Amino acid sequence: MISLSSIRKTFQTKDGPVTAVDGIDLKIDEGEIYGIIGYSGAGKSTLIRMLNMLERPTEGDVVVAGRTLSKLRHKELRKARQEIGMIFQHFNLLWSRTVRENIAFPLEIAGVKKAERDKRVNELIELVGLEGRGESYPSQLSGGQKQRVGIARALANNPKVLLCDEATSALDPKTTDSILDLLVDINEKLNLTIILITHEMHVIRKICHQVAVMEAGRIVEQGPVREVFRKPKENMTKEFVKQITEPEETVDAITQMLIDHPEGQIVQLTFVGEEAERPLITQLIRQFDVEVNIVQGKITKIQEGSYGTLFVALNGEQAEIKKAITFIQNKEVEVEVIVHD
Ligand SMILES: Nc1ncnc2c1ncn2[C@@H]1O[C@H](COP(=O)(O)OP(=O)(O)OP(=O)(O)O)[C@@H](O)[C@H]1O
User: Fold this and answer.
1) Complex ipTM, two decimals?
2) Using CA positions, which residue lies closest to atom 13 of ligand 1?
3) Does 131 score more than 60 pLDDT?
4) Domain ABC transporter: where (predicted)?
5) What is the pLDDT of residue 336?
Protein backbone atom coordinates (compact mmCIF):
# COMPACT_ATOMS: atom_id res chain seq x y z
CA MET A 1 0.00 0.00 0.00
CA ILE A 2 2.85 2.36 0.89
CA SER A 3 6.45 2.25 -0.12
CA LEU A 4 9.20 4.72 0.61
CA SER A 5 12.60 4.44 -0.95
CA SER A 6 15.66 6.36 0.19
CA ILE A 7 13.60 9.25 1.50
CA ARG A 8 15.54 12.25 2.68
CA LYS A 9 14.36 15.68 3.82
CA THR A 10 16.69 18.57 4.47
CA PHE A 11 15.40 21.95 5.65
CA GLN A 12 17.43 25.05 4.92
CA THR A 13 17.54 27.21 8.03
CA LYS A 14 19.40 30.37 9.05
CA ASP A 15 21.77 28.16 11.02
CA GLY A 16 22.45 25.97 8.00
CA PRO A 17 20.85 22.78 6.63
CA VAL A 18 18.92 20.47 9.02
CA THR A 19 18.36 16.90 7.85
CA ALA A 20 15.10 15.79 9.49
CA VAL A 21 14.76 12.48 7.62
CA ASP A 22 17.97 10.82 6.60
CA GLY A 23 17.46 7.98 4.14
CA ILE A 24 14.41 5.89 5.05
CA ASP A 25 13.09 2.81 3.25
CA LEU A 26 9.73 1.54 4.38
CA LYS A 27 7.02 -0.82 3.15
CA ILE A 28 3.56 -0.88 4.68
CA ASP A 29 0.99 -3.48 3.65
CA GLU A 30 -2.70 -2.89 3.06
CA GLY A 31 -4.83 -3.16 6.21
CA GLU A 32 -1.87 -2.83 8.55
CA ILE A 33 -1.67 -0.55 11.59
CA TYR A 34 1.90 0.69 11.46
CA GLY A 35 3.37 2.66 14.35
CA ILE A 36 6.42 4.91 14.21
CA ILE A 37 7.87 5.76 17.61
CA GLY A 38 10.65 8.16 18.55
CA TYR A 39 11.50 11.03 20.84
CA SER A 40 10.91 14.66 19.98
CA GLY A 41 13.08 15.76 17.07
CA ALA A 42 13.56 12.24 15.67
CA GLY A 43 11.87 13.27 12.41
CA LYS A 44 8.51 11.50 12.82
CA SER A 45 6.31 14.47 11.87
CA THR A 46 8.41 15.23 8.83
CA LEU A 47 8.23 11.58 7.76
CA ILE A 48 4.45 11.25 8.12
CA ARG A 49 3.89 14.60 6.38
CA MET A 50 5.82 13.28 3.38
CA LEU A 51 3.25 10.47 3.02
CA ASN A 52 0.71 13.00 1.72
CA MET A 53 3.16 15.58 0.40
CA LEU A 54 2.48 18.16 3.10
CA GLU A 55 6.28 18.06 2.94
CA ARG A 56 8.06 17.20 -0.30
CA PRO A 57 11.07 14.93 0.08
CA THR A 58 14.42 16.38 -0.92
CA GLU A 59 15.30 12.95 -2.30
CA GLY A 60 13.53 9.63 -2.83
CA ASP A 61 10.09 8.43 -3.87
CA VAL A 62 6.83 8.10 -1.97
CA VAL A 63 4.36 5.59 -3.44
CA VAL A 64 0.86 5.37 -1.95
CA ALA A 65 -1.86 3.11 -3.40
CA GLY A 66 0.11 2.65 -6.60
CA ARG A 67 0.78 6.36 -7.24
CA THR A 68 4.20 7.96 -6.97
CA LEU A 69 3.09 11.06 -5.07
CA SER A 70 6.49 12.69 -5.19
CA LYS A 71 6.17 12.94 -8.99
CA LEU A 72 2.58 14.27 -9.21
CA ARG A 73 1.61 17.83 -10.13
CA HIS A 74 -1.04 19.93 -8.33
CA LYS A 75 -4.27 18.63 -9.85
CA GLU A 76 -3.25 14.97 -9.82
CA LEU A 77 -1.87 15.34 -6.33
CA ARG A 78 -5.14 16.79 -5.05
CA LYS A 79 -6.95 13.74 -6.39
CA ALA A 80 -4.41 11.32 -4.96
CA ARG A 81 -4.70 13.02 -1.56
CA GLN A 82 -8.37 12.04 -1.35
CA GLU A 83 -7.08 8.51 -0.81
CA ILE A 84 -5.19 9.68 2.29
CA GLY A 85 -6.93 11.04 5.39
CA MET A 86 -5.07 12.66 8.25
CA ILE A 87 -5.76 13.45 11.90
CA PHE A 88 -3.75 15.72 14.17
CA GLN A 89 -2.77 16.17 17.80
CA HIS A 90 -4.74 19.42 18.10
CA PHE A 91 -7.60 18.23 15.87
CA ASN A 92 -7.42 21.18 13.40
CA LEU A 93 -11.20 21.64 13.32
CA LEU A 94 -12.99 24.70 11.96
CA TRP A 95 -14.30 26.44 15.08
CA SER A 96 -17.08 28.38 13.40
CA ARG A 97 -18.57 25.24 11.87
CA THR A 98 -20.72 22.62 13.58
CA VAL A 99 -19.72 18.96 13.83
CA ARG A 100 -21.82 18.16 10.74
CA GLU A 101 -20.32 21.06 8.81
CA ASN A 102 -16.78 20.08 9.76
CA ILE A 103 -17.33 16.53 8.57
CA ALA A 104 -19.03 17.75 5.38
CA PHE A 105 -16.17 20.10 4.53
CA PRO A 106 -13.97 17.68 2.52
CA LEU A 107 -17.10 16.43 0.73
CA GLU A 108 -17.93 20.00 -0.33
CA ILE A 109 -14.40 20.43 -1.67
CA ALA A 110 -14.71 17.16 -3.57
CA GLY A 111 -17.94 18.48 -5.18
CA VAL A 112 -20.32 15.95 -3.59
CA LYS A 113 -24.01 16.99 -3.92
CA LYS A 114 -25.93 18.15 -0.82
CA ALA A 115 -28.25 15.12 -0.47
CA GLU A 116 -25.39 12.66 -0.79
CA ARG A 117 -23.26 14.73 1.56
CA ASP A 118 -25.95 14.65 4.25
CA LYS A 119 -26.29 10.90 3.93
CA ARG A 120 -22.54 10.38 4.18
CA VAL A 121 -22.23 12.70 7.20
CA ASN A 122 -24.93 10.69 8.99
CA GLU A 123 -23.03 7.46 8.32
CA LEU A 124 -19.78 8.98 9.58
CA ILE A 125 -21.38 10.40 12.73
CA GLU A 126 -22.64 6.93 13.54
CA LEU A 127 -19.31 5.28 12.68
CA VAL A 128 -17.38 7.46 15.16
CA GLY A 129 -20.06 7.41 17.88
CA LEU A 130 -21.15 11.07 17.80
CA GLU A 131 -24.89 10.55 17.45
CA GLY A 132 -26.82 13.54 18.79
CA ARG A 133 -23.83 15.91 18.62
CA GLY A 134 -24.09 16.92 14.95
CA GLU A 135 -25.24 20.47 15.66
CA SER A 136 -22.64 21.17 18.39
CA TYR A 137 -19.65 23.42 17.84
CA PRO A 138 -16.13 22.12 18.53
CA SER A 139 -15.84 24.36 21.63
CA GLN A 140 -18.76 22.44 23.14
CA LEU A 141 -17.03 19.06 22.79
CA SER A 142 -14.53 17.15 24.93
CA GLY A 143 -11.06 16.38 23.53
CA GLY A 144 -12.07 12.82 22.68
CA GLN A 145 -15.19 14.00 20.88
CA LYS A 146 -13.16 16.56 18.92
CA GLN A 147 -10.82 13.83 17.76
CA ARG A 148 -13.86 11.75 16.73
CA VAL A 149 -14.89 14.67 14.50
CA GLY A 150 -11.33 14.74 13.14
CA ILE A 151 -11.54 11.03 12.35
CA ALA A 152 -14.97 11.34 10.69
CA ARG A 153 -13.73 14.25 8.58
CA ALA A 154 -10.58 12.31 7.60
CA LEU A 155 -12.72 9.35 6.48
CA ALA A 156 -15.30 11.39 4.56
CA ASN A 157 -13.92 10.66 1.09
CA ASN A 158 -13.37 6.94 1.77
CA PRO A 159 -9.57 7.06 1.92
CA LYS A 160 -7.44 3.91 1.75
CA VAL A 161 -4.92 5.30 4.22
CA LEU A 162 -5.25 7.20 7.49
CA LEU A 163 -2.28 9.15 8.87
CA CYS A 164 -2.34 9.92 12.59
CA ASP A 165 0.07 12.61 13.79
CA GLU A 166 0.29 12.18 17.61
CA ALA A 167 -3.50 11.87 17.52
CA THR A 168 -3.89 10.94 21.19
CA SER A 169 -1.06 12.99 22.73
CA ALA A 170 -3.40 15.76 23.92
CA LEU A 171 -5.86 13.32 25.52
CA ASP A 172 -6.05 11.74 28.98
CA PRO A 173 -5.30 7.99 29.28
CA LYS A 174 -8.95 6.85 29.30
CA THR A 175 -9.90 8.99 26.30
CA THR A 176 -6.71 7.87 24.54
CA ASP A 177 -7.84 4.26 24.92
CA SER A 178 -11.32 4.98 23.55
CA ILE A 179 -9.85 6.71 20.48
CA LEU A 180 -7.39 3.83 19.97
CA ASP A 181 -10.31 1.36 20.19
CA LEU A 182 -12.11 3.40 17.54
CA LEU A 183 -9.06 3.27 15.25
CA VAL A 184 -8.90 -0.54 15.58
CA ASP A 185 -12.63 -0.75 14.87
CA ILE A 186 -12.26 1.35 11.72
CA ASN A 187 -9.19 -0.61 10.62
CA GLU A 188 -11.14 -3.86 10.88
CA LYS A 189 -14.42 -2.62 9.40
CA LEU A 190 -12.93 -0.72 6.46
CA ASN A 191 -9.62 -2.57 6.02
CA LEU A 192 -8.05 0.87 6.28
CA THR A 193 -4.26 1.10 6.42
CA ILE A 194 -3.28 3.24 9.42
CA ILE A 195 0.09 4.90 10.00
CA LEU A 196 0.59 6.62 13.31
CA ILE A 197 3.42 8.45 14.95
CA THR A 198 3.79 8.63 18.71
CA HIS A 199 6.27 8.93 21.54
CA GLU A 200 4.22 6.55 23.72
CA MET A 201 4.87 2.82 23.70
CA HIS A 202 1.40 2.29 25.14
CA VAL A 203 -0.12 3.38 21.82
CA ILE A 204 2.09 0.95 19.90
CA ARG A 205 1.33 -1.87 22.32
CA LYS A 206 -2.40 -1.35 22.20
CA ILE A 207 -3.11 -1.16 18.50
CA CYS A 208 -0.14 -1.59 16.16
CA HIS A 209 0.77 -4.69 14.17
CA GLN A 210 4.16 -3.34 13.07
CA VAL A 211 6.49 -0.80 14.63
CA ALA A 212 9.47 1.24 13.49
CA VAL A 213 11.73 3.04 15.96
CA MET A 214 13.14 6.37 14.75
CA GLU A 215 16.23 8.17 15.97
CA ALA A 216 17.98 11.14 14.36
CA GLY A 217 16.11 10.87 11.06
CA ARG A 218 16.64 7.13 10.62
CA ILE A 219 14.78 3.94 11.40
CA VAL A 220 16.98 2.04 13.84
CA GLU A 221 14.74 -0.99 14.33
CA GLN A 222 11.50 -2.32 12.87
CA GLY A 223 9.33 -5.41 12.82
CA PRO A 224 6.12 -7.00 14.12
CA VAL A 225 5.23 -5.52 17.52
CA ARG A 226 5.34 -8.88 19.33
CA GLU A 227 8.85 -9.61 18.02
CA VAL A 228 10.18 -6.16 18.88
CA PHE A 229 8.69 -6.44 22.38
CA ARG A 230 10.14 -9.90 22.87
CA LYS A 231 13.63 -9.12 21.60
CA PRO A 232 14.37 -5.39 21.38
CA LYS A 233 17.84 -5.01 19.87
CA GLU A 234 18.72 -1.33 20.02
CA ASN A 235 19.09 0.65 23.25
CA MET A 236 16.52 3.15 22.04
CA THR A 237 13.98 0.34 21.54
CA LYS A 238 14.77 -1.13 24.96
CA GLU A 239 14.05 2.26 26.52
CA PHE A 240 10.65 2.43 24.86
CA VAL A 241 9.76 -1.14 25.82
CA LYS A 242 10.69 -0.31 29.42
CA GLN A 243 8.07 2.47 29.38
CA ILE A 244 5.42 -0.18 29.79
CA THR A 245 7.21 -3.13 31.35
CA GLU A 246 9.26 -1.59 34.08
CA PRO A 247 7.41 0.71 36.42
CA GLU A 248 9.46 2.58 39.00
CA GLU A 249 8.51 0.16 41.75
CA THR A 250 10.30 -2.60 39.84
CA VAL A 251 13.61 -0.81 40.21
CA ASP A 252 12.96 -0.35 43.94
CA ALA A 253 11.84 -3.95 44.30
CA ILE A 254 14.95 -5.26 42.52
CA THR A 255 17.24 -3.17 44.68
CA GLN A 256 15.55 -4.54 47.80
CA MET A 257 15.70 -8.08 46.44
CA LEU A 258 19.45 -7.79 45.93
CA ILE A 259 19.89 -6.66 49.51
CA ASP A 260 17.72 -9.52 50.77
CA HIS A 261 19.28 -12.20 48.56
CA PRO A 262 22.85 -11.13 47.85
CA GLU A 263 23.72 -14.61 46.60
CA GLY A 264 20.83 -14.76 44.11
CA GLN A 265 20.50 -13.89 40.47
CA ILE A 266 17.74 -11.69 39.13
CA VAL A 267 16.38 -12.43 35.70
CA GLN A 268 13.76 -10.83 33.55
CA LEU A 269 11.59 -13.27 31.63
CA THR A 270 9.67 -12.08 28.60
CA PHE A 271 6.81 -14.15 27.26
CA VAL A 272 4.71 -13.65 24.18
CA GLY A 273 1.38 -15.30 23.38
CA GLU A 274 0.74 -18.80 24.70
CA GLU A 275 4.05 -18.91 26.52
CA ALA A 276 2.61 -16.31 28.89
CA GLU A 277 0.06 -18.81 30.12
CA ARG A 278 2.25 -21.84 30.79
CA PRO A 279 3.12 -22.89 34.36
CA LEU A 280 6.81 -22.23 33.93
CA ILE A 281 7.62 -21.34 37.51
CA THR A 282 6.09 -24.56 38.86
CA GLN A 283 8.22 -26.56 36.44
CA LEU A 284 11.32 -24.66 37.51
CA ILE A 285 10.80 -25.34 41.18
CA ARG A 286 9.97 -29.03 40.61
CA GLN A 287 12.82 -29.83 38.25
CA PHE A 288 15.70 -27.81 39.65
CA ASP A 289 17.18 -27.28 43.04
CA VAL A 290 16.56 -23.54 42.98
CA GLU A 291 14.45 -21.18 44.99
CA VAL A 292 12.34 -18.82 42.90
CA ASN A 293 11.14 -15.49 44.27
CA ILE A 294 8.85 -13.39 42.16
CA VAL A 295 9.83 -9.71 42.27
CA GLN A 296 7.29 -8.27 39.88
CA GLY A 297 5.14 -9.49 37.05
CA LYS A 298 2.81 -8.07 34.47
CA ILE A 299 0.85 -9.44 31.54
CA THR A 300 -0.32 -6.90 28.98
CA LYS A 301 -2.52 -7.29 25.94
CA ILE A 302 -0.95 -6.42 22.63
CA GLN A 303 -2.77 -6.24 19.31
CA GLU A 304 -1.80 -9.81 18.43
CA GLY A 305 -2.01 -11.74 21.70
CA SER A 306 -0.57 -11.19 25.12
CA TYR A 307 2.83 -10.16 26.31
CA GLY A 308 4.19 -10.69 29.78
CA THR A 309 7.25 -9.81 31.79
CA LEU A 310 8.28 -11.38 35.04
CA PHE A 311 11.19 -10.44 37.24
CA VAL A 312 12.33 -13.34 39.42
CA ALA A 313 15.22 -13.93 41.78
CA LEU A 314 16.81 -17.36 41.48
CA ASN A 315 18.73 -18.65 44.47
CA GLY A 316 20.84 -21.80 44.60
CA GLU A 317 24.09 -23.26 43.30
CA GLN A 318 25.46 -21.36 40.29
CA ALA A 319 25.49 -24.53 38.16
CA GLU A 320 21.87 -25.26 39.04
CA ILE A 321 20.80 -21.67 38.25
CA LYS A 322 22.54 -21.95 34.89
CA LYS A 323 20.66 -25.17 34.12
CA ALA A 324 17.39 -23.52 35.11
CA ILE A 325 18.07 -20.58 32.78
CA THR A 326 18.86 -22.93 29.88
CA PHE A 327 15.59 -24.74 30.60
CA ILE A 328 13.66 -21.44 30.40
CA GLN A 329 15.41 -20.47 27.16
CA ASN A 330 14.35 -23.77 25.60
CA LYS A 331 10.74 -22.77 26.31
CA GLU A 332 11.18 -19.86 23.89
CA VAL A 333 11.00 -17.36 26.70
CA GLU A 334 13.50 -14.51 26.53
CA VAL A 335 15.72 -14.37 29.59
CA GLU A 336 17.80 -11.39 30.54
CA VAL A 337 20.03 -11.67 33.57
CA ILE A 338 19.68 -8.30 35.30
CA VAL A 339 22.45 -8.71 37.83
CA HIS A 340 25.30 -11.18 38.01
CA ASP A 341 26.34 -11.95 41.51
N1 LIG B 1 10.00 23.41 8.68
C2 LIG B 1 11.16 23.14 9.28
N3 LIG B 1 12.22 23.96 9.12
C4 LIG B 1 13.41 23.69 9.72
N5 LIG B 1 13.64 22.61 10.48
C6 LIG B 1 12.63 21.75 10.67
C7 LIG B 1 11.34 21.97 10.10
N8 LIG B 1 10.54 20.94 10.48
C9 LIG B 1 11.27 20.14 11.26
N10 LIG B 1 12.53 20.61 11.39
C11 LIG B 1 13.63 20.00 12.15
O12 LIG B 1 13.72 18.63 11.78
C13 LIG B 1 13.98 17.79 12.90
C14 LIG B 1 12.89 16.75 13.03
O15 LIG B 1 11.66 17.38 13.37
P16 LIG B 1 10.24 16.63 13.43
O17 LIG B 1 9.23 17.63 13.85
O18 LIG B 1 10.04 15.88 12.18
O19 LIG B 1 10.53 15.59 14.62
P20 LIG B 1 9.49 14.79 15.51
O21 LIG B 1 10.09 13.48 15.78
O22 LIG B 1 8.16 14.82 14.86
O23 LIG B 1 9.45 15.65 16.83
P24 LIG B 1 8.19 16.37 17.52
O25 LIG B 1 7.35 15.29 18.09
O26 LIG B 1 8.83 17.25 18.56
O27 LIG B 1 7.53 17.17 16.43
C28 LIG B 1 14.09 18.74 14.09
O29 LIG B 1 15.46 19.01 14.30
C30 LIG B 1 13.36 19.98 13.64
O31 LIG B 1 13.86 21.12 14.27
Assistant:
1) 0.96
2) 20
3) yes
4) 2-241
5) 81
